[in-house]
Amino acid sequence: MSGLDADVVIVGGGVNGALLAKQLTREGVRVLVLEAGPGTAWDYESYNQHLDTFFNATPKSVESPWPAAAGAPQPDTADVRLANGYFVQTGPDRFGSSYSRTLGGSTLHWLGVCLRMLPEDFRMHTEHGVGLDWPIGYDDLEPFYREAEHELGVSADVSEQAHLGITFAEGYDYPMHRLPPSWSDELLARSVDGLEVPLGDETFTLKVRGYPAARNSVPRAGYRPAGAVGEPGEELSLHRGLGQRCQGNTSCTPICPVQAKYNAQKSLAQADRDLLEIRSQSVVSKVLVDPVNGTVTGLEYQHYDEPGSARHTVRTATGRLYVLAAHAVENAKILLASGLDEGRTGRGLMDHPALYAWGYGPTPVGAFRGPQSTAGIDDLRGGRFRSSHAAFRLDIGNDGWRATTGAPDSDVAAAVSQGLYGDRLRDHLQRTLPRQVRFSVAVEQLHDPANTVTIDPAHVDELGNPRPVIDYRIDDYTKAGMAAGKRVYRQMFARAGIEDHSEDAGGNWFPSVTYEGEEYHYHGMGHFAGTHVMGPDPATSVVDADQRSWAHRNLFVVGSGSFPTMGTSNPTLTMAALTLRTARRVLAELGD
Q1: Residue 3: burial class (beta carbons within 10 Å; 0-12, 13-18, 19+)
Q2: Do 373 and 397 form a contact (C-beta atoms < 8 A)?
């Protein structure tokens, strides 16, 4: 290869980079992955070390098992609560989500929900007169949805998911059966199923449905789920449940203790290891471009030897094709730092600003048992009302008020401060904790060019790389969706006899917006999108329908940053499907 490091150089070892590496190496392509974070959790022993870190941590936050390296800082809850973290937030509203910079990326601590986008989500401007249209449609992506569901190991039943226009190929079903509903799911379904809700000129009938999840259940015939990360051996054989079926630990976020949930390192482990090289602790700082023809000639990166130190050396990686497969924010940051901005890079940042709704059920609901969420209400993800306000969906939580008030620890502390101890304390907790109900109302957000990721030489990290500057606002379209979501969950609570505590002080650290005189506390879902949007025209988009850069034809920029819209679905399955589609284009380019 004339001294090239690889045929394809990929930036990022998260789900997009891992799927590309697996697909390409299995076709005989030599791949180099440059990962900014440490190469942690690559084997059984290091994964266990992260479990120990989590067990020993006092706050059980998303970041607890996955501490940041000095050379690869990352956003965390401090960015939202204290505004002094990795993000430089300039407002007017606070961006409330985080992600991880380590091998495996945010799949190390995601919830695993794998909803497909609705067909209408791809045609928002055409069907509803708002937002953007995708340059491809649902039918173009459907074969790759099937492929992604097998790569990630999704558990669900087609019979439950075929609604709101979602169609499946004849004879297809998910690789594994749906996860069993939690006791909370079943109790709420008895009360909520059949509830009629008016939105605009339509009436919707609600139904609790199981969520497709990248979490091992009972495989269908012919499917073998991926097990634990690392090579199988004697040590793994002593832990027969490791990497097998979900055991119902309520800790999918921040870590699955038995690796029943998919993470990107499982895909890396399935790549052709003879053709794959991973250089962790290697922060790409610049895309090198030939000024004459716009061809990318290499990637400049900083390699640091120790996670706790910023000492580093500067190196260059070269290949035939280059793929930015980092996080949506990091992809934009790399392009901007390289001077590769035609006025569209970093624009259109989206998330799902979500409301929490919580209260006490009339009877115990089995709180703190099972995966954190196994079902929700999807009926309000689509409809004619989207011409005037955002769609939304309601996740049912199985983890009590952990996310909203810090339960059960906060409940114990509050009870003790009120003088309860011994039998009285135990009786109080037995009466209250099992009855805790929690919903998360994920609200759609449209592409807005004013929501941006930019860089500023005044704000750099320890390696001298720019920190992301986030300018974020939630518009009236989304706020109106929040208001509609609040009306719906109040109807549901009334129907189910749930004592509403959503306005209690426990959630007041969340940022808030005001709409028509009412305040709405929200949190981010970690669903970043829209920072290098795809489209049919280089004048209005950063990449084409294959996620190939318009300006630099041997550069691909992949991931949820390419999304023109996101609807209400978690982005991982859709970006995995897009990446698998792009892999075909990359292979075709290499073959030309």
Answers
A1: exposed
A2: yes
**Each residue of 307-330: pLDDT tens digit?**
999 999 999 999 999 999 999 999
Selection from 262, 226, 143 nearest residue 583 by Cα: 143
> Is the previous residue joined to 408 through a cis bond, with omega within 30 degrees of 0?
yes
Residue 10 CA to residue 582 CA, distance in Å, equals 13
C-alpha neighbours within 13 Å on the C-beta side of residue 531? 32
**What are the beta bridge partners of residue 316?**
300
- pLDDT, tens digit (0-9, with 9 covering 90-100), for 552-567: 999 999 999 999 999 9
The encoded tokens of residue 428 equal: 């109080």
Token pair for residue 302?
């900083």
User: Which one-letter amino acid corresponds to residue 398?
Assistant: N
Instruction: Identify the bridge partners of residue 300 per DSSP, sorted by sequence position.
Output: 286, 316
- How many residues are listed for the chain in this entry? 592
Name which of 311, 285, 307, 308 is nearest 298 in CA terms: 285
Contact 543, 549 (CB under 8 A): yes
- Torsion over CA of 462, 468, 471 and 477, rounded to 10 degrees? -140
Helix or strand or coil: residue 383?
A: coil
How much is the average pLDDT of 343-356?
A: 96
**Residue 234 pLDDT > 60:** no
**pTM, entire model:** 0.96
User: CA 353, CA 445: separation in Å to the nearest integer?
Assistant: 8
What is the Cα–Cα distance from 186 to 432, expressed in whole angstroms? 19
34 close to 97: Cβ distance less than 8 angstroms: no
Cα–Cα distance, 542 to 538 (Å, whole number): 6
| Secondary structure of residue 507 in the 3-state scheme | helix
Cα separation, 163 vs 507, whole angstroms? 34
Phi, psi of 110 (to 5 degrees): -80, 170
